[in-house]
Amino acid sequence: MRSLLLLFASAAAAKVMDSLPSVPKGWTEVRQASPDDSVTLRVALPQQHATALEQAVLEMSTPGHPNYGLHMSRNQVRAYTAPTEQSVSSVVNWLAGSGVKPSVNNDWITFTTNVKTANDLLSAKFAWYQYEKGGSPKLRTLSYSVPDELAGSIDLIQPTTRFGQLGAKRSTIHEIQILESGEENATKENTAAQAADCNPSRITPDCLKSLYNIKYTASPDGNLVAFASYLEEYARYSDLQSFETQYVPQAAGQNFSVQLINGGLNDQTSSDDSGEANLDVQYVLAVSNPVPILEYSTGGRGPLEPTHDEPGPSSNEPYLEFLTYLLDQDDSALPQTLSTSYGEEEQSVPADYALKVCNLFMQLGARGVSVLFSSGDSGPGDSCIRESDQAPYFQPSFPAGCPYVTSVGATYNVEPEQAVSFSSGGFSSLHAQPAWQADAVNAYLDSIGDTYSAYFNKSNRGFPDVAAQGSRFIVIDKGRSALLSGTSASSPVFAGVVALLNAARKSQGEPPLGFLNPWLYNNSAALIDITSGYGSGCSSNSAFRNGARWNATAGWDPVTGLGTPDFGKLLAAAAPGVENA
Q1: Residue 575 carries which DSSP code?
Q2: What pLDDT, in 10s, does the model give residues 263-285?
Q3: 488 an active-site residue?
């Protein structure tokens, strides 16, 4: 054992796991770290049966397969994701050789040590770095290595080379318009007069239920729909009560519960933005009431690799902390449906981090949770620059490009419903095209020929999967009426629809839908195909003379996916025999 530990400690036989050529743009080294500075690191270990788990998730999520709906328990999933005993013992012994006592949780090892020890272990050079626009300094290294003998036992260690900093929120709200008192009174009068009729200048709960043919009332018993809040945003009880009184009187008195994660708070008097969280809870409730609602409030910020459009400070969300917490929960504590209205450029997220997070979303699908994400609000992209070579290239979204989430684009207008210009979509740069979307996506690709072919990877996962209204939603925020637009509105609406479908299935003794996408592509006729409008972007890039746009067309397209919900048809597909009433 002694000789093995000495070998591990040798820098001469080390594999570089990650390395940056220089300090990222906008950052400056302010000082070397003190040898006694404390650092906490997380080690991801390779999962023994990752491929088998992926196959099992596809089988349990594909209609017609004998295993359809046979979701797994927490312990069953952990059996698939467990590392080998040799991987665990090798890493633990390596750390023990330096006096480090780690904490092991299945395929994650967490340890806290001092900078001197971390530098020695990882052949690193930790220092304190400051972002030019402020924020707290970050303890990072420009490279790290592990012994060759351990390279096969470690997927990643972070935070190490990941430069991130606190900054402005990065939800997918496109715009917020606060209504003056005269406009607010006019809106209330118009809403009362129009009842369920839709006015595209003001989207209300009654409009959505009318537009999408939602008449079903679920039982609250045993059902749960959740939404995720990050970046110090907190939904407000008083705003929800006001929203119910004015726009959803049948739900009056329904509240939401809050689960705090990784230092998250529930600050009902915060002076920070609350528009995103209020939009989420108000429109999940508008569609799915009386299904109980849970807010997950997660503290901390995820890693960021600075790009032209996200140069820092970091506004990436702490998905790892949230998802590892969620997957540790008992089966009975998990929601059947989870909506998240946050996202960023896929290329701003380190690839190993993005792939690990996508794997965690897959594990939620294995547990029977339907996970929905806003697709983003920049059409094909903003600057449309690929950071690796500065070439013009479209900018897919993260996590919307992960195949194991259902990505939701946005529409506006009602006669006809059209794609809205900010709705993001495109093709992932990380994930291959899944078989369940091949027919739909390839039909679209055939229709556009070589258009934009140099700016995206047509062999990869296309998104969004579906869409819903996303423009000019009436929201109560800090006691004021406001109009909010963005795919931030679309995701909670579609999540509300899915929550009702899961509740209807429960009423028949059936399991929840779980990972949705194979079912959705198998039931595309239950969605309203959006064939007009477009998503536009890249206007600042000279490679695109008039910007770039994806058009909404017959069938799947990278603006509205398969389309918007026709609840009656979706209900008939998900829970045959349950009346839409």
Answers
A1: S
A2: 888 989 888 788 899 999 999 99
A3: yes
